[in-house]
Amino acid sequence: MKKSVVILLFTMTSILINGQLKVLIFNDQQKINVYDSFIGNNTINYLMNDTITEDYFVIEIISSKNNRYQIEGTSILNRGITGWIDLQNIGINTRSRDNKLILYNKPRYSSDHLVISDTDRLVEVKSISSNWLKIIWVDKKEYWLPPEYQCPNPYTTCN
């Protein structure tokens, strides 16, 4: 019961905070190095989605440089882990609207797009442009995901 209350509070907190772009860790049970700068390999901490304790991170992107992202990582058991992580570790849950997901060829609404009737899923993020995320979809093609179809919450579908 206590764990359920903590998960609910964490979920509500991450939904209510509207600041920087928020993303997730793409792989579970894998340590992600957190570096002290955008260059070099001085590891100062790590992030890890722990499926055993059901402790998953939400990552706030602060800035980017040289394929690294300055972040603040927060989970139920860990708060305020800051530093730089490599881009290949970032993912996002998709969030369909009215059972549809719209993926774009470029990070703008006027771009050609694809409408998919699909379930929500975790996808790998390849690039970020403003608040749009370039993702790899199940067909192995890259598309741009607009903010309203992103769910940066590891515990709910954001619907």
Distance between the termini: 23 Å
Low-confidence stretches: 1-18
Give the number of DSSP strands: 13
> What radius of gyration results from the CA coordinates?
16 Å
Oligomer: single chain
**Share in β-strands:** 35-45%
Supply the helix-strand structural class.
Answer: mainly beta
Q: Describe the sheet with the most strands.
A: 9 strands, antiparallel
The secondary-structure element order is: HEEEEEEEEEEEEE
Shape: globular
The percent of residues in helical segments reads under 10%
Model description:
With 159 residues, the chain is mainly β. The chain has 1 helix and 13 strands. It has one helix at residues 2-16, and strands at 22-25, 32-35, 43-47, 58-65, 68-74, 81-86, 90-94, 101-104, 113-116, 122-129, 132-136, 142-145, 150-151. The strands form 3 sheets. Strands 1, 4, 5, 6, 7, 10, 11, 12 and 13 form a 9-stranded antiparallel beta sheet that branches. Strands 2-3 form a two-stranded antiparallel sheet. Strands 8-9 form a two-stranded antiparallel sheet.
Topology overview:
Layout: H1 2-16, E1 22-25, E2 32-35, E3 43-47, E4 58-65, E5 68-74, E6 81-86, E7 90-94, E8 101-104, E9 113-116, E10 122-129, E11 132-136, E12 142-145, E13 150-151
Short summary:
This protein is mostly beta strands and 159 residues long. The protein contains 1 helix and 13 strands. It starts with a helix and ends in an 8-residue tail after the last strand.
Which labels suit this protein?
disordered N terminus; two-stranded antiparallel sheet; 1 helix; 9% helix; 13 strands; nine-stranded antiparallel β-sheet; 159 residues; mainly beta
